[in-house]
Here is the input.
Amino acid sequence: MPPPTPARLPARLTALVRRLRHLEIRMRQAVEAQLQGNFGSVFRGNGLEFDDVRLYQYGDEVRAIDWAVSSKGHGTFVKTYKEEREQQVLVALDVSASQRVGGGVGGAPSKLDLGRDLAGVLALSAARQDAALGLLAFSDQKELYLPPTKGLRAAYALLQRLYDLVPASPHTSVGAGIRQLLGLVRRRSLVVLISDFIDEGYERELTMLARRHELVVVQLLAPQEARFPALGIVPLRDAETGLLRWVDTSAPAFRAQHAGQLLVRQQALRTLCRRQRVSLLTLRTDEDFVPQLVGLFRRRNQ
Here is the structure.
């Protein structure tokens, strides 16, 4: 049975697919123009996977020896590898309440809207290239997990499940989300971790993730987080805890503290990603994310 076309999908999903396809086509055309090559290489692996064993030869590295096979007494064997030509992709998306910030400012989407659009574009791109893509949506718990699957039918199902998702918990735990991912995905994969990273204590888990998988970190930022509007004394409610407090948003002390906290959080994430040699994209909800995504794919193909 052929995969469903947008015309045969529910009206709401049809409009969503058409919008995401427009973004995906822009991205594909830009990648092909800049790489002067095939967009199909975007989701191909750039690492190695185990292939076979052979007898040790003079000059082989000691660390390549397969001690489990060699211990059987039939000689010393080393592992051989082949290039990964097809890579499994897993999008891990933070869907906690802080991700809802950003909508309505000059028509800009919320951070969650941007994250879902990014996941959707990647799903359609992977389907076009016959790559397996899965999704983990998390808060401080697992909200939705769809194992990596190929094909347009799977991509459409992922879009519908993701955009219909109503998270059960408003709270954030990036560390818990990463631990869930590590338990679910055993095969080395390309992992795209999307969050605003308004959290603490996830450094150890992110380091483990970077060592086991090829990792891309995407930090989402709303414009009012970068520059809080001076509204005078207003009530502010924490999206995750529900606590309400009155603050003077025009006070220099409040504005300096707010800007300082953001700067410290961003610098800590940049330092962590640089230390682990992880690609980091910072995307604002009021900007077009396609050029930066194209830049990421261009670097992956160099």
